Amino acid sequence: MALKTEKTQKLIKGKRYYTEFGKIKYWNIINDLVLVIVLPIFLFVLLEVIFFMLNFGYDFSYLKIDNFIILTQNILKNFWDLKNGDVFEKVFFYYITGVFTFLVLFFVYLIYQIKKANILSKLSSLGLEGYKLKKRKDGLLFIVRRGEELDLKKFQDENLENIRQVFNKFFKEDDEIVVERYKNRGFYLKKVKLQVPNFSFKMLKKGKVYFGKGLKNGDIYLKIGDLTHFLIVGQSGAGKSVFQNLLINQFIYNLQTENGVQELYLVDLKGGVEFLQYSRFKGVNVVTDVPQLLQLSRDLIVLMDERYQEMIKKGWKNWRGGQIVVLIDEYASINDQAGLLEKDEEKELKNNLRTLLAKSRAAGIKFIVATQKATSDSIDTTLRENLQSKILMRTISKDAQRVVIPKEQLEELGVEPARFTKGRFVLFSEKILDLVQSPFIREDFYKEIEKLRKDLLQTDNRIYKTDNDFLQNNLSCCEVEAQDLVFSDGEIERGEDKNENPGAETSNNKLPQQEEAIKLRKEMYKLTSRIVDKEKRKNIRALIRKIKEEQEQGIFSYSLNDLKAMKEVIESEINAEAERPKAK
Which of 121, 307, 517, 557 has its CA 20 to 30 A from that of 357? Predict the structure, then answer.
């Protein structure tokens, strides 16, 4: 590989034991080894000759090989005693000591030069001839040589991966590294060590939310009143759900407290299964379908306008009371289901969301939006830009990364989001740019919140209500995907048909309308056995299973008219299948 610049060619000259590219000159090494070993032996023999000449008066008849052998044996045998002998014997002692020390130092120097040649060779293979390498305990430091310029591209993307492979003895496969600038002289490849204990009630704080431990900022707590709109982006398995649960539990802990949360709305258009356990708390409302979301957007706009009127009267720039938090899980599901609305309602929903994200922050209404990717096909660009704070979790696509956080900020941190571990993310807000590790929180942590906030508990769950009629022509707005509710047809039949505790659903405490709703749900289940299409049967039964779970918990979010409409849809599907010509 040729050197990159003329400066580098002048700078890195070929040494005796290696070329400028780090190639070892083995012949020079062998020559010097022979010379270093033979020359001391020759000088040792010469000293013995001089010793004979001085002791025997230049009578060369004594210079016999046997005498030299005997003399050498005596010198080596009694080497340590020579230091106490006459002057000439002391010369032998210090000579041999010096030669031995020199040989040791020479071999150490030779090993160092070979290692240095090896490093130069590796740097050359990476196109880094203009850099020197210094090893650190927690990373590698590449310092640019005098006369050369820093090249950030050498420490990004695939080049960074090449460095990991070349120096694989230093970096483990699962090591996460960041690239930091070093005094405008080089780049520091530093191993990331962010260890956070599991979330516990000791981490709860009034009026604040814990995000995790930052590489620069340490433990990061943000005041609820200072929160901006947040966008959370990360592919499946990156830890979005765990992080959302972390935030939700802390919001509930701060419900209806000073400097806390007044109302919490959890939007899950996959049937609400992700957030149903939180609806037992006062002040928490779960939105499970797009008509409910439309109604929520209308109500929030009214509330926002009312708050602005009050702020004008009191001279406030920002709302000083309780905050409204709206958390939307997987924004792409809104796009998928908005088409189920009437055209004017669909347009109204999108306009309402744009208006809220643009204006509601000052009125104390904060949105937290999660999605797998933030490209324009998943979330409207205008909406995305109004989500001022960004959280980027593991994302492989470079384009998807830079849509969320500008390239310059990622370069400043020197991180590679494609290699993030679960719960690791980049936090980019008005005041913070940091690499953060969020703690793991148990799924049943809300039980700890129940003990701390008994005043929030209620007997019936809160599902956000809407007066819109049930969408009779399409069931997909309430369908639950197979990965969210996995069960076999046989298991459903046992749960429905056996009815091991029939008195639980027909208790005298239930109203006649509720008993009628339970009866309709059972009739619908029996009808599904006549649906031939397995996929449709599974989706409809998933919906019925969800209704059953709600009814068992005392929730009757679907009216009798809704259930009757669903029954008509099922019957029409059965009739349509019966009228289709059978395949021959």
Answer: 557
- Dihedral angle, C-alpha 386, 388, 391, 395, nearest 10 °: 50
Q: For residue 212, give the DSSP letter.
A: E
Is residue 280 within 8 A of residue 453, CB to CB? The reply is no
Backbone angles phi, psi at 475, to 5 degrees: -95, -5
Helix axes 26-55, 65-77, angle to 10 degrees: 100
For the stretch 419-439, pLDDT in tens is 888 999 999 988 899 999 999
Structural domains in the chain plus CATH codes: 11-126 (no CATH), 130-191 (no CATH), 201-456 (3.40.50.300), 476-579 (no CATH)
Question: Is residue 437 a contact partner of residue 212, using CB atoms and an 8 Å limit?
Answer: yes
CB 191 within 8 A of CB 329: no
pTM: 0.65
Provide the edge-to-edge strand list for the sheet that holds 284-287.
Answer: 218-223, 208-214, 433-437, 424-428, 389-392, 230-233, 365-371, 323-328, 261-267, 284-287
Closest CA to 170 of 142, 128, 129: 142
Using CA atoms, how far apart are residues 397 and 372, in angstroms rounded to an integer? 11
* pLDDT above 90: residue 232: yes
**pLDDT tens digits for 522-565?**
888 888 878 877 778 878 888 888 888 788 777 777 778 788 88
DSSP H or E stretch at residue 33: helix 26-55
**HSE-up of residue 36 (Cα within 13 Å, Cβ side):** 18
Tens of pLDDT, residue by residue over 125-172, are 888 888 889 888 888 999 988 878 888 888 876 788 888 888 888 887
Give me the pLDDT at residue 255, please.
Answer: 94
